[in-house]
Amino acid sequence: MAHLPAPIALLAPSQLNTLVENRTVYSLDAFELSVFETHQRALHVPLSLGQVVLTTMLRGKKVMHLTGRNAFEYLPGESVVVGAHETMHIDFPEADAATPTQCLAVAIPTDTIRQTVDLLNEEYPRAEAHQPWQLDTRTPEHAHFHNTPELTGTLERLVQLSRSTGRVKDVLAGFTIQEMLVRLMQTQARQLLFHNYRQHATSHRFAAVVQYVKQHLTEPITVEKLAGLACMSKATFFRVFKRELGLTPVEFVIQERLAEAKRLLCLPAATVADVCFRAGFNNTAYFQKLFKQYEGITPGLYKRQRAAGQRVGG
């Protein structure tokens, strides 16, 4: 399920200054938030904001061209981090008056990033001292990612603050941009461990935990067992895991089992009950409740939709 901030109304045609990357800017002391809209097809449009930028797609489709990376499609529910002196070149292959693109861009001052990173490293150091907190704008797999619910919630609050007229909005904005940076670094830490856990299994205690979970999904998995793999007490493991990755160990196990369930539901002969137990759940009602909570639809409907899509594609 794509995680999107609350919808932002499109501008009326009479309010647009340009049909390509029309920009509405909200400037606060702590950050600058822009909403970009494109209402016609365009290719290789350059854009640079002069600061580190977190962009989030709200509607439509772009193709992004960034230095040192292969071109990639950019879709709603995804975000991209761009360095301070990097120019994006953007294609809008499907944009028109009926199906415009829209995205958010949050420009973050360098001082804010440095202060937040320093605070985390001093007060809340990561489990592995050789891997301090940092914001990665260069590694492709860390700079383009699917939004987490936590990051999406923070972005939504930034939009609300930007458009509000309250007297204390700049104070609240300062706290919220720091929270967004923490959520962003947690998301990047997830990308690092969840997708490259084999590479880091001997150098990062949480990578060993991720590897164990992925290899034992169908078995009972306890927090005590995972804490032992991380060489931590149960309480310390639970606290540090959530602080670094933005979710609890239990939530991580559930997400991994649901990902396996989604894979199994695509198999024509697999029933929902069969998938439930093969993915490591031991109660079909609980499985169906969790699946709908995380994916927004029931496993049965997910299976039917995937089957219909495969028939159309075939």
Please give a handful of descriptors for the protein shown.
314 residues, Jelly Rolls, Arc Repressor Mutant, subunit A, 3 domains, four-stranded antiparallel beta sheet, 12 helices, 18% strand, HTH_AraC, AraC family transcriptional regulator, sequence-specific DNA binding, Tscrpt_reg_AraC-type_HTH, DNA-binding transcription factor activity
Can you say what the CATH homologous superfamily of the largest domain is? Regulatory protein AraC
Low-confidence parts: none
* Number of discrete domains: 3
Named CATH topology of the largest domain: Jelly Rolls
Overall geometric form: globular
Percentage of residues in DSSP E strands = 15-25%
Span between termini: 24 Å
Could you tell me the radius of gyration in angstroms? 21 Å
Helical coverage, percent range: 40-55%
Return the average pLDDT rounded to an integer: 91
Write down the secondary-structure element order: EEEEEEEEEHHEHHHHHHHHHH
Number of strands: 10
Q: Which structural class should the secondary elements be placed in?
A: alpha+beta
Biggest pleated sheet = 6 strands, antiparallel
Protein name: AraC family transcriptional regulator
Pfam families: AraC_N, HTH_18
GO molecular function: DNA-binding transcription factor activity; sequence-specific DNA binding
Domain HTH araC/xylS-type: 207-305
